[in-house]
Amino acid sequence: MSPAQASFIQPGEPADLAAELADRFAQLTGHRPAAVAAAPGRVNLIGEHLDYNGGRCLPIALPHATYAALGRRPDRTLTLTSRQMTGPIEIPLDDLRPGSVQGWGAYVAGVVWALGQEGWSVPGLDVVVDSRVPIGSGLSSSAALECAVAVALAAALDVPDSGEVRRRLAESCVRAEAEMAGAPTGGMDQAVALFGQAGHALLLDFADGSARQLTWSPCDEDLALLVVDTRVSHTLTDGGYAARRTDCESAARVLGVATLREARGRVDALEQLSEPRLRRRTRHVLAEMDRVDAAVHALERADHAALGPLLDASHDSLRDDFDVSCPELDLVVETCRRRGALGARMTGAGFGGSAIALLPADDLEDAALAVGTAFEEQGWRQPGFLRSPASGGARRLR
Ligand code: ADP
Ligand code: MG
Fold first, then answer.
1. Is the C-beta atom of 223 inside 6 A of ligand 1?
2. How far apart are CA 206 and CA 184, in angstroms?
3. What is the largest CA-CA distance in the chain?
4. What protein residues have CB closer than 5 angstroms to ion ligand 2?
5. How far is the CA of 353 from the centre of ligand 2 (A)?
6. Could you report the per-residue pLDDT of 122-181, keeping only the tens digit for each?
7. Nearest ligand for residue 141 CA
8. Which residues pair with 354 in a beta bridge?
């Protein structure tokens, strides 16, 4: 039997979710939170696996966010509770160091630790979180968690909100994830969680650290972006991601450049790589950089439809050259293409996770239904679906 309706994951109303979380915080701790903040998950429109290669990417913030409530404690302890995990976890504040916290607590404790390294004097804290971002789905629940905690902590400590402060928060969240949680990421997730803007994609350039907002408004052309969470869990710590980074670094070494970005425009770059795997990895990176250029050009002309073929080519390259797709992602992409998508591709690091499809807005529900049916025919668990207008970045809500 086919599913009668695709199940869309709702982002919820931020003010309501923040109020609910503040009440839950009070029930759990006996006091009201000093601050409640939210930070969004994200999808990357294009530019995959380019952050650590000195390239550019183009993420948007989702309406789905992680919410963090926090308040001071009189002792030197962190207590962490998540609606999505078992807990609470108690961590002595003065023992924080890389390796000292395992599991999800490392993401939160990591933010506290990294800000401590920046010179912030962080007191004992109660932290309670809740999230509408699917976890482990390539939609960056990890950065949403870190950034929600970071913004709530800055607010609780009366640190004024500014671009400069946010840049430091972003760096600290990257350090938290890399050094405390053991997942080295390139910084895209935290940047868009903190700097995303409604109606915009964030063009991030990892060669010089610059960022630019580009209008992203597919609804002007009666288009919409469907996000499909395959619910095949990916993990960034199981070696596949690290292996891709190592491949890219090896290729850069052979070519005598610091990052593959610097090999752009070198006609002989691929020929110089005799190892077929490194050649394929590099072919993806260099072609994806060209696709990002074309996508930027398309958005500057407000020609959203022009993105379609670029999404398709990006997926094929991630599947065939970078080897980070999987049957579930491929099925989503193929099904959406058959159902009228202008383009579709996996998004995020891959090995499971999520895919996006740019569709005529009227076809979005049908495409989701078709994907659900295709999964059912395979005997796979139903995927999750998200509608994803570009939303705003992290903010204090209470
Ligand atoms: P993604 O960022 O794509 O969702 P990651 O593997 O990078 O996947 O991060 C997922 C991890 O982040 C979870 O395994 C958990 O440790 C942590 N995490 C994310 N959201 C929450 C949450 N709401 N509560 C507790 N931990 C969370
Ligand atoms: Mg993550």
1. no
2. 15
3. 66
4. 140, 142
5. 10
6. 999 999 999 999 999 999 999 999 999 999 999 999 999 999 999 999 999 999 999 999
7. 1
8. 229, 347
pLDDT at 142: 97
Quote the pTM value. 0.95
How far is the centre of ligand 2, averaged over its atoms, from the C-alpha of 136 (Å)?
7
> Nearest residue CA, atom 12 of ligand 1?
142
User: Measured from the CB, is residue 129 less than 6 Å from ligand 1?
Assistant: yes
| 146 close to 190: Cβ distance less than 8 angstroms | yes
The yes-or-no verdict on residue 204 having pLDDT over 70 is yes
Residue closest via CA to ligand 1's atom 26 equals 104
Annotated catalytic, 321?
no
Q: Is the CB of 107 under 6 A from ligand 1?
A: yes
Counting ligands in written order, the one closest to the CA of 236 is 1
- Please state, in angstroms and rounded to a whole number, the distance separating the CA atoms of residues 201 and 260: 24
Percentage with pLDDT > 70 across the chain: 98
Helix (H, G, I), strand (E, B) or coil at 246: helix
- Using a 6 Å cutoff on CB, does residue 349 contact ligand 1? no
Is the distance from CB of 157 to CB of 28 less than 8 angstroms? no
Amino acid, single-letter form, for residue 329: L
Atom of ligand 1 at shortest range from CA of 103: 16
pLDDT of residue 1: 46
- pLDDT greater than 90 at residue 349: no
User: Six-digit token pair at 291?
Assistant: 């696709």
Q: Report the pLDDT value the prediction gives residue 2, as an integer from 0 to 100.
A: 54
Answer whether 103's CB lies under 8 Å from 90's CB. no
- How is residue 303 annotated by DSSP? -
For 20-59, the pLDDT digits (tens) are: 999 999 999 999 999 999 999 999 999 999 999 999 999 9
Among 189, 205, 247, 323, the one annotated catalytic: 189
Judged against a pLDDT cut of 60, whether residue 319 lies above it is answered with yes
Residue among 285, 318, 297, 299 nearest 54 (CA)? 285
C-alpha span between 351 and 177 (Å, rounded) = 19
Kindly provide the b/e burial profile for residues 274-294, where b requires at least 16 CB atoms within 10 angstroms of the residue's own CB: eeeebbbbbbbbbebbebbee
C-alpha 277/C-alpha 242 separation (Å) is 15
Going from the Cα of 354 to the center of ligand 2, the distance in angstroms, rounded, reads 12
